[in-house]
Design brief:
Helix content is 51%, strand content 12%. It is an alpha/beta fold and 286 residues long. β3 (123-128), α6 and β4 (155-163) form a beta-alpha-beta unit. α2 (43-49) packs across α3 (56-74) and α4 (94-111) packs parallel to α6. The chain is globular, with a radius of gyration of 22 Å. The N and C termini lie far apart (63 Å).
C-alpha cells in the first residue's frame, strides 16, 4: 500500500513538472522577466491564522520560498532577490529576532548542501545589506555560502538581510564619493591630472568632481533593476525595498499570505508583466 502511494506521489510530481514546462513554453512566446524580487509578507499572520506556535510561520514561509525559487529557475529567471530581514525588523522583540536569526543560520547552512536547490540550478548566492548588524554565526554562515557558490553562473539569488533601500542608496553614494576622491588624489599625487600645470579653472574642477548615475548604480547592492516585485498579503507598499531599482517595475500583490503563495501566482505575475511590457519598456530610465 505504501509503495503504491509512493508511486502515485512520484507520478503526480512528474506530471506537475511537465505541466509547468508546458506553461513555460507558452509564456516564452512573449517577453520574460529577467529579475523578480519578493517581499515575503505574512509569515506571522499565517501563524496566527492557523494557530501555530510562534516562529512556525517563518519555517512554512521558507518552504514556500524554496518552491518559488524552483519555479523561477524553471522559468529561467536569471536574477531573484528576496527581502529576508529589514534593518527595522531588529526593533522587534529580542526573542523573535533571535528565533529568526537561528532559523536563518540553519537554512543558510542548508543552501550549500549538494542536493540543495542552489546546486541543482547552479545559483550564485549573494547576501547584501549592513551585514555587520547580523550576529557572528549568521554572518559567517552567509560568508561560507557566498564562497561555496561563487563559481555558479546560471542564476543569481540575492538575499537582502539587515537591509533597507535608503541604507543601500546612502552606501552607494558614500562609496561613489570615496572612489572619486581616491581617483582625484591619485591623479594629483602623480602629477598627471587633467588640469595641467596651471591648475584647474572652476568649471573644469566642478565637472571633474561630479558623480554620475552610472557610478552610483555601480555601488548599489542589488542589480540589475527589477522587472517584477511580488508582495504577498495584498499590500502595495515597497516598505523601503528596492526604491532605486523599481521605478519601472511591475508591482504584483496577491491577497495570499507568503506561506500560501503558489505556482499560479507566479504565472499571473508573469502574464501581467507581459500585458504591461510595452508600457514599462517605454518608461525605462534613460
Amino acid at each position: 500500500m505504501e509503495r503504491h502511494s509512493s508511486c502515485q506521489t512520484t507520478f503526480f510530481a512528474y506530471f506537475l513538472a511537465f505541466l509547468r514546462k508546458c506553461i513555460f513554453m507558452v509564456l516564452s512566446s512573449g517577453p520574460l522577466p529577467r529579475h523578480i524580487a519578493f517581499i515575503m509578507d505574512g509569515n506571522r499572520r499565517f501563524c496566527k491564522k492557523n494557530n501555530l506556535m510562534e516562529g512556525a510561520g517563518h519555517r512554512v514561509g521558507f518552504s514556500a520560498l524554496m518552491s518559488m525559487l524552483k519555479y523561477c529557475y524553471e522559468f529561467r529567471v536569471k536574477y531573484v532577490t528576496i527581502y529576508a530581514f529589514s534593518i527595522d525588523n531588529f526593533r522587534r522583540r529580542p526573542e523573535e529576532v533571535q528565533s529568526v536569526m537561528d532559523l536563518m543560520q540553519e537554512k543558510i547552512e542548508g543552501l550549500t548542501k549538494e542536493e540543495s536547490i542552489v546546486n541543482q540550478y547552479g545559483v550564485k548566492v549573494r547576501f547584501v545589506g549592513n551585514l555587520q548588524m547580523l550576529n557572528k554565526p549568521v554572518r559567517l554562515a552567509a560568508e561560507r555560502a557566498m564562497l561555496a557558490t561563487a563559481n555558479n553562473s546560471k542564476a543569481v539569488l540575492t538575499i537582502c538581510v539587515a537591509y533597507t533601500s535608503t541604507d543601500e542608496i546612502l552606501h552607494a553614494v558614500r562609496e561613489s564619493c570615496e572612489e572619486k576622491r581616491d581617483e582625484l588624489d591619485a591623479l594629483e599625487a602623480t602629477g598627471s591630472g587633467p588640469y595641467g600645470l596651471l591648475g584647474p579653472n572652476n568649471n573644469e574642477k566642478e565637472q571633474e568632481e561630479q558623480i554620475d548615475l552610472r557610478e552610483i548604480e555601480k555601488h548599489m547592492y542589488v542589480t540589475p533593476d527589477s522587472d517584477i516585485i511580488v508582495r504577498t498579503s495584498g499590500e502595495t507598499r515597497l516598505s523601503n525595498f528596492l526604491l532605486w531599482q523599481s521605478s519601472v517595475s511591475l508591482l504584483y500583490s496577491p491577497l495570499v499570505l507568503w506561506p500560501e503563495i503558489q505556482f499560479w501566482h507566479l504565472v499571473w505575475a508573469v502574464i501581467e508583466f507581459q500585458r504591461n511590457y510595452l508600457y514599462l519598456k517605454g518608461k525605462v530610465k534613460q
